[in-house]
Amino acid sequence: MSVVDVLAAADPVRHAELPCPEDDYARALRERVLRADVRRHAPGRRALVLAVAILAVAAVAIPRVLQREPVGASPAAAAVLEDLAAASARAGQTVAGRYAYTEAKTIFSVTDTDAPAFTALVPSVQETWLAADGSGRIRTVHGTPYFPSARDRSRWLAHGSPPLGLPPGSVSIARLRPSRGDAAALARRDPATLDARELDRLLNSPAVLPTETGALERLVRAYARTKDPPVASMMFEQLDDLLTDPRSSGALRAAAYRVLASMPGIQLRGRIRDPIGRRGTAIDFPAGYTGTIGYRLVIDPATGAVLAEETLLRHPGPEVAGKPGRVLGEVVYVRSGSVGRLGARPAVHR
User: Fold this and answer.
1) SS3 assignment, position 84
2) 39, 183, 253, 295: most buried, per Cβ within 10 A?
């Protein structure tokens, strides 16, 4: 069988879309092409030149078909992420008390998928007290819901104006229980051998996570494969969680930034102000299957600390209207520090 025959038989477009390079069908296609014996028919010079040309095209085109995106962040974003990794490593870990305290202004979206679908936005102020073992408390003051567009509000009215969360001004308290199990033992195992619960437990224990970039990438990728969203989107979300977890060391945050630098699709948006006016560096990343929404992180370039994370509307769809760039979700980290007891608040602002 010639190389042309191999490529024709493999037919890389017979499926509507290849999920990722690690997909079983993608692996099989890659192996069939690479194992093809082009010498079997002893081609003449012209045929040999054609075979070499086909192999050259395949070497470039097939990885692109399998991956569907360039490898790694844009060059500008990768350079900035490397600088942020260095800044995080220098900053180290700042939690000194029993609890890491964080105050954040948040916006969460609430979507009703019953036709006609609509989305509402619910603001709140959250205070979190988090101990090293995962125990603690979250105190939330709920704000007044609003809508990203007039269409969403009219559809909400058409549904009979259902409640959109707790009444404005109300306060809710969530108590966090300590993590169970030996996370350190899980960290010594191959991530591919861990189930979803074990991976969840491990990634909620930043103190034992690997700070070597390749090891962290393998762990986060294994975790992402147990979730529903596309692997890249879930990896970005989990890396964001590690970057914003006050228990994460500077070395762990540095490794997280370096993993981000290896991910395709990340774009640098440059210097901007966060929602409360602080200057930072912004990076963007597409989310989900359709590209309707995207993620943005605004980061302090001096320390590598995430100032704000946003979910932005990229393209209006059936479930949400509004202009591109509309904020559909937001967490703005107003202040943080260490305290000795639940309910206490630090004086240090950032």
Assistant:
1) helix
2) 253
Compute the average pLDDT of residues 180-189: 90
Q: How far apart are the first and last CA of the chain?
A: 65
Q: Residue ranges per domain, the chain?
A: 3-67, 75-339
Confirm if 18 and 26 have CB atoms less than 8 A apart.
yes
Count of residues making up the chain? 350
DSSP string covering 121-183, please? EEEEEEEEEE-TTS-EEEEEEE---B-SSHHHHHHHHHTT----SSPTT-EEEEEEPPP-S-H
**Geometric angle at alpha carbon 233, from 317 and 255, rounded to 5°:** 150
**148-163, pLDDT tens digit by residue?**
999 999 999 999 999 9
Distance separating alpha carbons of residues 212 and 249, to the nearest angstrom: 13
Closest CA to 79 of 260, 251, 323, 306: 260
For all residues of the chain together, what is the average pLDDT? 81
- Calculate the alpha carbon distances from 123 to 105, 120, 144 in Å: 7, 10, 7
Sign of torsion, CA 333 339 341 343? negative
